[in-house]
Specification:
The chain is of the alpha+beta class. The chain has seven helices and 18 strands. Strand 14 and strand 15 form a beta hairpin.
Length: 435
Amino acid sequence: MARLFRFYEKKRGDRRTGSQAFGNFGEALFFGIFFALGCIAFVYMFAVLVWPEWRANRQFAPTTCVVVAKHLGVKAATANEPAMYRPEFHIRYQVEGEPYDVDEVYDVTQIYLPDQESATAILAQFEVGQEYPCWYDPINPKRAVLARGYSGWLYLTLLIPLSFLIIGGGRLVYALLDWNASAERRSLMTQRAAQIDLFDYDKQDRNFPSVPADANLTNSPGTTLAYRLPIAATTGWTLFGASAAAVLWNGIVIWFAIMAIRSFALGTPDWTLTGLVIPFAAAGVWLIVYLIRQLLKTTGVGPTRLEISAHPLSPGSPYELFLSQAGRLAMNSLEVWLVCEEKATYRQGTDTRTETRRVFGERCFVREGFQIHQGLPFESRCQVRVPEGAMHSFHANHNEVCWKLIVRGAVVGWPDYQREFQIVVNPAVNGQTHA
C-alpha cells in the first residue's frame, strides 16, 4: 500500500533526497498558516474597527444630548506598554420620546491612545450640563457617539494583514497547483501556457515551430527604418513597484516609530518595539535609495529608440540600425551590443531553477565623450550582422536561445543605464539563410 507521504526517496544507491510531496506539504502548511493569520487579523480589524466607524459616519442618526459627566479613561501601564488614555462622557438623549443614558461615550472605536494631553484637550471642549450634537445607532439606540470621522492610521494598519493575505494566499495557490506534480505534468502546463496567443497571429504561417514569433516585434513601423523595436523590459513597472513598496513599507514603519518615540516621551520606553523598528527602518532607507536610483534612471535619461531595416534576421546578412537617444545628458559613452544568451530550466530537488549564460557578444556601435541637448536627440546609424553558422533563436519548455540588442549608456553624474531590445534570428535552410 502506497504511503501518503514519503519523508525521503532513494535516488542512487544510499543517496537520499527529500520527498517532493512532503516538501510541498510543508510549504503549503507554512503559507496556509500565513494566509489564515492574515484572514483572522483582517476580519477582526474590519469587524471591530472599520465597519463600526463606517456605520457611525454613514448610518448613525443625528440628535442632541446633554453631557451629564465626563472623566479621563485610563488603562494602567504594563511592563511592555505605557499607560493609555481616552476621553469618556456620560450623556443623556431622547429617541422618539424615549430617554437614554449612556456612559463611557466618545467615538465608536473606543481605542485608548498613549497621548494624555490630547485626551485632556478633548474633555475640555465639553461642559457638563450643556447640549451638544451626537449620533445614535438606529438599530441599537443605546449606542451613541459624540465624535465622528475616519482614522487614517486605521486603514494604514490594514496593510499589514492585507500583505499576509496576498503573500500567503498567492504562494498557497501555487503550492497546491504544484502539489506532487510530475515533471511531465509541469512541462505540459508550461507548454499550454506558452500556446496562449496574445496577438492575432496565424500559426500556419510559421515555418519554424521552435523559433519564437516576431509578431510583437514588427507591429510598430519605424520613422526612419522598417521596424521600431520594443524595449524588452520597461523601467516604468520597476519604478512603480519601487514607489509602491517604499511608500507602503515606510508608512507602516513611520507609524510604529511614532509609537516608539511616544513611549520614550512618556517615560515608559518600549524597548521591544524599538528593537523591531530599527531593522525595518534600515530596510525602508534602502528602499528609498533604490527608488531614487530608479527615478534618476527614468527621469534623468530620455527615451531610447532603436529601429531596424528588416526582421527577422538571417545569419550572415547585414542589417541597418537607427539609434536615437533623447534627453539632456553629458555622455561618457553610448554603445550598441548584439548578444546571444542561452537559458536552461531544470529541477533541483523541489525547486525549479533557471540559469542564463551569454555565449556571444559583439559591439556594433560606440560613441564616447559627447553632449545630448534638450529637444535635440542624438541620432546615428550602424550595421548589425549575426555571424554565419550561429544558432538561431530557439524556445522550448526547458531551453531557450535568445538574441537581443542592448543599448548601454554611461552618463556623467548619473547611474549607468541599459536597455534591451529583443530580436528573432531565423535558422538557415539547406545551407542558406532564411528571412
